[in-house]
Amino acid sequence: MYRKVLLLLSISILLSCNDGDVFVSKLEFPETLEYCTGSDDLIIYTIKNSPYESLSVKLPLNNETYLTTEGLFSTSLSSTYTFNFRTYSGDPSNIFCNSLPPTTPEITSNSEANNGLVNFETILEEDDNDGIPAHLEDNNTDGDNDPTTDPTDTDNDGIPNYLDSDDDGDNVPTINENPDPNGDGELSDALDTDLDGTPDYLDVDDDNDGTLTRYEDTNSDLNPTNDISDVIIGPDYLNSSVTTTTIIDSYRDHTKKQIYTCFIDIENMILINSSDDTELINEEYSLGIITTSISNYTYTVDFN
Ligand SMILES: [Ca+2]
Ligand SMILES: [Ca+2]
Ligand SMILES: [Ca+2]
Ligand SMILES: [Ca+2]
Predict the structure, then answer these.
(1) How many domains is the chain built from?
(2) How far is the CA of 218 from the centre of ligand 4 (A)?
């Protein structure tokens, strides 16, 4: 239910005037929010140019962590941390995130709420970005076509294949083991150097010379691709006539892409127009979404 409310693209707000008139005003703004951080505050805003209007909320700076932390969080509005609906004489694009706000455009009206609750709901989606679609990284032993349930973990490192950037744990990242040379999202052409029926990205001994790929790492830098005895043939882990063995029982750092989507709404607020004291009242208003993408999140994986 909470999500449904948040996803509404436009929200109607009951506008209740002092004289008792009640009518509906639509506040329709872009769903994608912007934000800026200052020395003390986090300012989240959205603007539009037809007419020139903005919605903004000022919050304590530590609220910024909610944007990249999974879960539900709430913070209260106050006389210091307010929600504002403003109209302008011109384009307000440069109003925000500016230590010295420009003198124009003028703010032609300002409505402010200093009570109510700002709610954050942040979800995280991750991808190993290894060139293989997630649904092809699961043996689907449970038959539900969902790689996240009963997931396959080829190297038993605790990272399921659909999130593992090195599926066979040989310290050559899957994307560098050519799982899909023609890039068509179908893996029948996956490189199988030793033609043993196991594609390189799932093969712990890629050249089938009896020495694990992970151990064909003479300089011990957790990267077998730069240990090359014969430049014509290439790395030793793909050269079956080279079996120099260096015991390496640890994994290179893994990487993944993270996308945090934070839905922000405001509940139980009363917006008061500073010039005529009209009140905009609403129970729950979907302010919008902030998306934060981390393309190369790096993390360590313990060797089992
Ligand atoms: Ca794994
Ligand atoms: Ca993978
Ligand atoms: Ca391999
Ligand atoms: Ca070799």
Answers:
(1) 2
(2) 11
Q: What letter would DSSP give residue 67?
A: G
Token pair 């009363």 is found at 270
* Distance, CA of 153 to CA of 137 (rounded, Å): 9
pTM for the whole structure: 0.83
Residue that the structure tokens 């196991």 belong to: 198
Distance 153 CA to ligand 2 centre (A): 9
Residues around ion ligand 4, judged by CB within 5 A, are 207, 209, 236, 239, 242
Q: Are residues 241 and 280 in the same domain?
A: no
Q: Which pLDDT tens digit goes with each residue over 81-140?
A: 999 999 999 999 989 998 887 889 999 999 999 999 999 999 999 999 999 999 999 999
- 63 lies in some domain: yes
Give residue 217 CA to ligand 4 midpoint distance, Å: 10
| CA 82 to chain CA mean position, Å | 27
Strand 83-88 with 41-49, pairing? unpaired
Is residue 100 located within the same domain as residue 134?
no
Q: Of the ligands numbered here, which is closest to the C-alpha atom of 152?
A: 1
